[in-house]
Hints:
The protein is an alpha/beta fold. The protein contains eleven helices and twelve strands. It has an eight-stranded parallel barrel with strand order 3-4-5-8-9-10-11-12, surrounded by four helices. It has a two-stranded antiparallel sheet with strand order 1-2. Its EC number is 1.1.1.-.
Amino acid sequence: MKKIETRDGLSLSELSLGCMNLPLNDEKETEKIIEYALSEGINYFDTADFYQFGDNESVLGRVLDKYRSRYDFNIGTKGGNDFDRIKREPKGWNPDKAYIKEAAKESLRRLKTDVIDLYQLHGGTIEDDKDEVISALEELKTEGIIRSYGISSIRMNVIDYYKKHSNINTLMMQFNPIDNRPLEVIDGLDDITVIARGPLFKGVFSSHSERVLTKKFENGFLSLNTDDMRQVTEELKEIDSDLSRLSYRFLSYHNAVIANGVSSLQQLEENIKSFNQSEPLSIDEYDKIYQALKILKYEDHRS
Length: 303
Ligand SMILES: NC(=O)c1ccc[n+]([C@@H]2O[C@H](COP(=O)([O-])OP(=O)(O)OC[C@H]3O[C@@H](n4cnc5c(N)ncnc54)[C@H](OP(=O)(O)O)[C@@H]3O)[C@@H](O)[C@H]2O)c1
């Protein structure tokens, strides 16, 4: 599996495992998924403290711990969304330095690791005291709690600030041929690595595309209605009949780490099969894909 080197020296597999939708209530099945991912060369696992109010990190930490002696892997998690672990309720966005530092230490404990390879700010607004956030992240790095940090955001003004004033290593955004808003952002990122979440757009880019469009996108997406989305996938199928493979090739062209979420082993098997058949796109093929896209723009939070 190809690795993407980040500027802080992380070596992340191009295809990575988004852990948000793992079947946590069936830990055996979750372990099968994780073991299969590792055996296929996936070395980056993406989670967040907020997913299932800490349980996602706990299960991932428990399972990965069993494989530590056999595999080298990286764990990425996220913080900033405060929650009540006992009541299992969200408490809202909290960018306070003391909170972020404490949250990272809680994640470290749940993940059963000595150091968090990638700690991501789980959102953020332009109103936050961003220098305090950066100071928290830098201190966590100096203290050896985290190895590197990044942000998860599509807000242009937030991205711009962290790009100029911090050492973010990565930027996570939802990115696929339909949600193509990151296209506007990526050219100015220099050596910041893009982590593309939602590469299959909940299954739109899979062999189950029609069912997913009808069931999960009956109201469309942003300015696109379901028929607009269907038109895009139909045109893209003319270029590559395997929609998952097409999306992977599109993201690979942009050098992204692809954070693919799954809820079953079968999905991961299907996805890895398509990923392993992905040939690099030529410029001509990329141009054809680009012509079929409906270009979306993130309208808010620009200044
Ligand atoms: N703000 C943030 O930072 C943020 C937000 C969201 C996600 N993330 C991260 O990004 C990761 C990926 O995001 P995502 O889970 O939204 O990605 P995604 O790839 O768009 O969606 C994953 C879902 O797609 C469906 N799917 C996957 N493979 C399939 C296949 N072969 N056939 C049919 N359906 C398939 C499954 O839905 P079903 O389970 O319904 O079958 C699966 O749960 C997450 O796991 C998480 O780590 C970050």
